[in-house]
Amino acid sequence: MLKTVTKVCEARKIINEWKKEGFTVGFVPTMGYLHEGHMSLVKKAREQNDKVVVSIFVNPMQFSPNEDLDKYPRDLEADTKLCEENGVDLIIHPQPAEMYPDGFCSFVDMTGPTKELCGKSRPIHFRGVCTVVNKLFNIAQPDRAYFGQKDAQQLSIIKRMVKDLNMPIEIIGCPIIREKDGLAKSSRNKYLNEEERRAALILSKTILMGKQLVENGERNAKVLCDAMRKNIETEPLAKIDYAEAVDFDTIEKIDTLKGTVLVAIAVYIGSTRLIDNFIVTV
Ligand code: PAF
After folding, report:
1. Interval between CA 227 and ligand 1 midpoint (Å)
2. Active site residues per annotation
3. Closest Cα to atom 1, ligand 1: which residue?
4. What pLDDT was estimated at residue 76?
5. How confident is residue 148, by pLDDT bands cut at 50, 70 and 90?
6. Which atom of ligand 1 is nearest to the CA of 187?
């Protein structure tokens, strides 16, 4: 039976009981407004663990003042239904004051990988992500935690955090889930009007094109990214934030494609910022 709790102590109590019974816990941290992408993480967690915990928390710390915290879509009722249908055991749905009570002043602040790609236009974002994910890990005490490859830089950073800070948690990355026409599923797709929704296809088309260039032997990162940028520029409603190739583990820019490479783009469609990527081992 699915349970929803809003207090950290309630979550702890339930999870401690499970741990005593020897159950393994799979954890899917989310900001809610759940879609098939999130459910693919839940399904994987369901396969690999005795119990599945989902957190639903729109984390104020990872939004800059000029970003979409207030208008970020929320629908707890629909989320609960989806979780129920997909065999989730526990939803943790805290209020901001429960996560950040008065006097809160501890942060997980990573250097290197958080400064590139999305870190450039969202300078405080990953400090907020690392801090909240660390807190959520301490609350849910999972054996395994599941993150979508859609947020590939986030996935890389969480893997790094867990390694650097010796957290006994296995981080599992899951493939990008797409709409039928290719657009990567995202809660932010809701912001797009009809014209923008059509224009947003430039992201997945550019990713496909980039992938093909690499499959055909392109190894020069500049040539690859220039071609991808040029392709994005063909869409009048699109404004490029970045199109870059980096080492997946370090998020450092590369000149030549070698090892595990993340090719990532961020594009504004109107005022909505969307991201997409592919990871390739060369
Ligand atoms: O990917 C997200 O939805 C968020 O960044 C996360 C990991 C739930 C932290 O707030």
Report:
1. 31
2. 38
3. 30
4. 98
5. very high
6. 3
- CA of 104 from ligand 1 middle (Å) equals 20
> Do 101 and 9 touch, CB atoms closer than 8 A?
no
List, in order of start, the domains of the chain with CATH numbers: 3-174 (3.40.50.620), 187-281 (3.30.1300.10)
Structure tokens at 9: 């102590």
Burial per residue of 220-234, b for 16 or more beta-carbon CB atoms within 10 angstroms, e otherwise: ebeebbeebbebbee
Kindly give the distance from the C-alpha atom of residue 29 to the centroid of ligand 1, in angstroms, as a whole number: 6
Average pLDDT over residues 216-225: 98
Rounded to two decimals, what is the model's pTM?
Answer: 0.98
The 10s digit of each residue's pLDDT in 91-112 is 999 999 999 999 999 999 999 9
Q: What is the pLDDT of residues 225-273, one digit of tens each?
A: 999 999 999 999 999 999 999 999 999 999 999 999 999 999 999 999 9
Rg of the chain in Å (alpha carbons): 19
Q: φ and ψ at 161, to 5 degrees?
A: -60, -45
**Residue to mutate (ligand 1; options 146, 154, 185, 186; most atoms within 8 A of CB):** 154
Give the residue, by CA position, lying nearest to ligand 1 atom 8: 30
